[in-house]
Amino acid sequence: MAISKLGVLGAGAMGAGIAQISAQAGLKVVLVDIDQKFVDRGLQTMNKNWEKDASKGKITQEDKERFLGNIQTSLDKSALKDCELVIEAIIENIDIKKQAFRELGEICSPSTVLATNTSGLSITEIGAASGRPDRVVGMHFFNPVPVMRLVEVIPGEETTEETVELAMEVSRIIGKTPIRAKEAPGFIVNRLLVPYLNDAAHAYQEGVASAEDIDLAMKLGANMPIGPLALCDLVGIDVLLMVVEHFYKEFGDPKFRPALALKQKVRAGHFGVKTGKGFFDYT
Ligand code: CAA
């Protein structure tokens, strides 16, 4: 195996998903967050998924215990110091990510590769903050992580080929199909998907149709597995808005103007599935 011990920083939906599939693949996982309640929520999500798999006969209770036994949790980043690879999956904010990479750069062994699950921020900028830009790479996963098969692997300006290869190899070990993308806002998937989701929110704001009908239209008329507004709720409207705003700034193109409907949902604290309300209700 390319690595035996993987660190995950951030136990939210993405971090917990990455920890789950890595533990399933037999890696020792160190999962770190800043508050025990986030760690507990992440463990609960994994537990729920494993219970579901066990009830379908896909895994046994012993498998579940073994997976859980592969996960160590901590509130202290220094628990990540001897991991061969650390994947960061914290809030999509460049200043907070840079601060986290500055700390990881100081804490982790010089050989540790640091990956970011950013949806579209600059790998080069994050890498520069770490003090080891040659060993920083983007590893972009998709929600829900246990189901979605892709990982986009994105080198920054100074990332070495060896670092990219490690990210590709680990992606395969944890059951994903990696593809390589250049550093550009949104890489591949979000470059195409985010304008579509933002447009659906514009259409909703303009009253083109109800939320239900916009989603039904794309499911029945374009064979999408899920409607665009339900997908906004799944991704997190707060995350989506940050990505659209980043696109608007980076491309300077009015086609990326964030929909007012996204801003209003965020201002109201209705981020989607994770808060129980977004374009649809989940309570
Ligand atoms: N965690 C783990 N497993 C899950 C899950 C979750 N959150 N949600 C669904 N599943 C599993 C189910 O257990 C089920 O497994 P089995 O096949 O073993 O029974 C399987 O997925 C299918 O689920 P359902 O039958 O309940 O529901 P569905 O057919 O509607 O599928 C879905 C659910 C796969 C999520 C589907 O709705 C889908 O494909 N949605 C689109 C997801 C997508 O586009 N994600 C990308 C978002 S963009 C992003 O993440 C990047 C970013 O940076 C913003």
From TrEMBL:
<dbReference type="InterPro" id="IPR013328">
    <property type="entry name" value="6PGD_dom2"/>
</dbReference>
<dbReference type="InterPro" id="IPR008927">
    <property type="entry name" value="6-PGluconate_DH-like_C_sf"/>
</dbReference>
<feature type="domain" description="3-hydroxyacyl-CoA dehydrogenase C-terminal">
    <location>
        <begin position="186"/>
        <end position="282"/>
    </location>
</feature>
<feature type="binding site">
    <location>
        <position position="119"/>
    </location>
    <ligand>
        <name>NAD(+)</name>
    </ligand>
</feature>
<feature type="domain" description="3-hydroxyacyl-CoA dehydrogenase NAD binding">
    <location>
        <begin position="5"/>
        <end position="183"/>
    </location>
</feature>
<comment type="similarity">
    <text>Belongs to the 3-hydroxyacyl-CoA dehydrogenase family.</text>
</comment>
<dbReference type="GO" id="GO:0006635">
    <property type="term" value="P:fatty acid beta-oxidation"/>
</dbReference>
<feature type="site" description="Important for catalytic activity">
    <location>
        <position position="140"/>
    </location>
</feature>
<feature type="binding site">
    <location>
        <position position="92"/>
    </location>
    <ligand>
        <name>NAD(+)</name>
    </ligand>
</feature>
<dbReference type="Pfam" id="PF00725">
    <property type="entry name" value="3HCDH"/>
</dbReference>
<keyword id="KW-0520">NAD</keyword>
<dbReference type="InterPro" id="IPR036291">
    <property type="entry name" value="NAD(P)-bd_dom_sf"/>
</dbReference>
<dbReference type="GO" id="GO:0008691">
    <property type="term" value="F:3-hydroxybutyryl-CoA dehydrogenase activity"/>
</dbReference>
<keyword id="KW-0560">Oxidoreductase</keyword>
<feature type="binding site">
    <location>
        <position position="33"/>
    </location>
    <ligand>
        <name>NAD(+)</name>
    </ligand>
</feature>
<feature type="binding site">
    <location>
        <position position="143"/>
    </location>
    <ligand>
        <name>NAD(+)</name>
    </ligand>
</feature>
<feature type="binding site">
    <location>
        <begin position="10"/>
        <end position="15"/>
    </location>
    <ligand>
        <name>NAD(+)</name>
    </ligand>
</feature>
<dbReference type="InterPro" id="IPR006108">
    <property type="entry name" value="3HC_DH_C"/>
</dbReference>
<protein>
    <recommendedName>
        <fullName>3-hydroxybutyryl-CoA dehydrogenase</fullName>
    </recommendedName>
</protein>
<dbReference type="GO" id="GO:0070403">
    <property type="term" value="F:NAD+ binding"/>
</dbReference>
<dbReference type="InterPro" id="IPR022694">
    <property type="entry name" value="3-OHacyl-CoA_DH"/>
</dbReference>
<comment type="pathway">
    <text>Lipid metabolism; butanoate metabolism.</text>
</comment>
<feature type="binding site">
    <location>
        <position position="274"/>
    </location>
    <ligand>
        <name>NAD(+)</name>
    </ligand>
</feature>
<dbReference type="InterPro" id="IPR006176">
    <property type="entry name" value="3-OHacyl-CoA_DH_NAD-bd"/>
</dbReference>
<feature type="binding site">
    <location>
        <position position="97"/>
    </location>
    <ligand>
        <name>NAD(+)</name>
    </ligand>
</feature>
<dbReference type="Pfam" id="PF02737">
    <property type="entry name" value="3HCDH_N"/>
</dbReference>
